[in-house]
């Protein structure tokens, strides 16, 4: 079988490595992939958002199955375009990807179907939003409606900050068209959990839960990033809570999307907050999380391609999705300065052992050598019988990834360890 994976980050590298365990797969292509992925797949120089070029490549190269991993191409309709040419895909169609593509859509969906989430108001006029933040409860959360690389969320601790965020988004177009509509919502408190779930539109099979570390600095300080590390499972997500989430959130969401004529197939990502009033949805993503995938897929014991195809074919109910009862930790090594400005082009070296456990995100090949090309450069994952051991091993292996100006948080997994105690 010939597989095409659309995307080019650590998540896509983890997906490709997991897919390749299936001996039926003879060739894997990545569009665009990256310098590190090039070890495991044939990288083709097509951007993940260039849908016509992706479709042309897939057709010419007789791709049997395509995995569309990032949010942008999904929201732009990559799956629809590939399916039109008869290429089966993993991922939702455009009309379902809107669950991530528009926060206003997802909030209205949750309200309509009684799915627990933060209370909110939607604004399309600056004046109305400004007058709302003069009286709303503080802190409050201001969110750009559209995709903004995870950066379109401002937690405002004061009215002034809320007014500034609203003005930046609506009048100064800080997030482009993504911010012409804003959602202003209730500030929630509680541990955060990421749950990725396979679904074929009828059956939902959640994967092992995980915990992201979004801030750049130790002890959750500094700016929000795309994620500096992850652990799985998330110790806050007990079996009891999982049951509540299935009943009150996962199944109702699948049902709601069906009722709206927007059947969701693929991986639905539930960003949850475990509040004193029960679990609530912070966000939906229409795809695998990054770097959640880098801890979840190494624990998957079932064949990834088989499960993915079951979501496409509607046979997920009969398909086994089994995870190892073990622990995983992924430590991101970033370019110093990320998520703001940072230098690129530094050569990357690995010990053999580190390379085997590392997913490459921001790296390119220049004059035959692997060099840094992005903010998050690598993610190194270890799997062990205990969380403590997984953390220790992930850090030990990360030390085998070397480049100038490398930066990593030193406390990935520590909060999870405390929670276990
Ligand atoms: P999002 O991009 O929607 O995942 O938001 C980014 C981060 O902002 C989340 O991971 C939370 O830590 C935080 N956040 C988002 N919405 C809320 C909320 N209503 N209350 C408290 N924190 C929030
Ligand atoms: N790690 C958060 C995300 O993928 O959106």
Task: Please give the number of β-strands.
Answer: 25
Separate helix tally: 14
> What is the arithmetic mean of pLDDT?
96
Structural class: alpha+beta
Overall outline = globular
Which small-molecule species are bound to the chains here? adenosine monophosphate, glycine
% residues in beta strands: 25-35%
What is the makeup of the main sheet? 6 strands, antiparallel
Radius of gyration: 21 Å
**Uncertain residue ranges:** none
Summarize the structure.
The protein is an alpha+beta fold. It is built from 14 helices and 25 strands.
Task: Present the secondary structure layout.
Elements: E1 2-7, H1 10-19, E2 27-32, E3 42-43, H2 51-60, E4 65-68, H3 71-76, H4 78-84, E5 89-90, H5 94-101, H6 103-113, E6 120-123, H7 126-133, E7 140-144, E8 153-156, H8 159-170, E9 182-186, E10 192-199, E11 204-206, E12 211-212, E13 215-217, E14 221-224, E15 229-232, H9 239-259, E16 266-275, E17 278-285, H10 293-296, H11 304-313, E18 327-335, E19 349-350, H12 352-356, E20 358-360, E21 363-366, E22 369-372, E23 376-384, H13 387-398, E24 401-402, E25 406-407, H14 414-420
Parallel strand pairs: 1-2, 1-4, 2-3, 4-5
Antiparallel strand pairs: 6-9, 7-8, 7-9, 10-11, 10-16, 12-15, 13-14, 15-18, 16-17, 18-23, 18-25, 19-24, 20-23, 21-22
Helix pairs in contact: 7-8
Residues 150, 212, 227, 285, 289-290, 292 line the site of glycine.
């Amino acid at each position: 079988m010939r597989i095409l994976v659309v995307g080019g980050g650590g998540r896509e590298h983890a997906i490709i490595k997991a897919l390749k365990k299936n001996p039926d797969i003879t060739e894997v292509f990545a569009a665009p992939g990256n310098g590190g992925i090039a070890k495991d797949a044939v990288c083709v120089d097509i951007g993940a958002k260039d849908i016509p070029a992706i479709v042309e490549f897939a057709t010419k190269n007789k791709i049997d199955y395509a995995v569309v991993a990032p949010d942008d191409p999904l929201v732009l309709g990559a799956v629809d375009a590939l399916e039109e040419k008869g290429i089966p895909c993993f991922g939702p169609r455009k009309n379902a990807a809107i669950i991530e593509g528009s926060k206003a859509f997802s909030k209205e969906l949750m309200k309509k179907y009684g799915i627990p989430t933060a209370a909110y108001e939607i604004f399309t006029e600056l004046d109305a939003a400004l007058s709302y933040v003069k009286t709303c409860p503080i802190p409050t959360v201001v969110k750009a409606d559209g995709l903004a690389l995870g950066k379109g969320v401002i937690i405002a601790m004061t009215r002034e900050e809320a007014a500034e965020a609203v003005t930046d988004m609506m009048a100064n177009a800080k997030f482009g068209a993504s911010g012409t509509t804003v959602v202003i919502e209730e500030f929630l408190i509680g541990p955060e959990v990421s749950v990725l779930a396979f679904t074929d539109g009828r059956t939902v099979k959640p994967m092992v839960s995980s915990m992201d570390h979004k801030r750049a600095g130790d002890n959750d300080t500094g700016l929000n990033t795309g994620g500096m590390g992850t652990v799985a499972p998330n110790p806050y997500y007990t079996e009891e809570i999982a049951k509540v989430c299935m009943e009150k959130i996962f199944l109702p969401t699948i049902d709601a999307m069906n009722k709206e004529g927007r059947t969701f197939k693929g991986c639905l990502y539930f960003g949850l907050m475990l509040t004193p009033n029960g679990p609530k949805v912070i966000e939906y993503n229409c795809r695998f999380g990054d770097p959640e995938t880098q801890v979840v897929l190494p624990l998957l014991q079932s064949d990834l391609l088989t499960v993915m195809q079951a979501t496409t074919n509607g046979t997920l109910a009969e398909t086994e999705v089994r995870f190892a009862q073990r622990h995983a930790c992924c430590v991101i090594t970033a370019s110093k300065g990320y998520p703001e400005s940072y230098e690129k082009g530094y050569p990357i070296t690995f010990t053999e052992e580190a390379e085997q456990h590392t997913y490459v995100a921001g790296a390119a090949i220049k004059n035959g050598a692997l060099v840094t090309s992005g903010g998050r450069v690598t993610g190194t994952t270890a799997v062990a019988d205990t969380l403590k051991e997984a953390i220790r091993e992930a850090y030990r292996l990360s030390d085998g990834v070397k480049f100038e100006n490398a930066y990593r948080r030193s406390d990935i997994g520590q909060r999870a360890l405390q929670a276990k105690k």
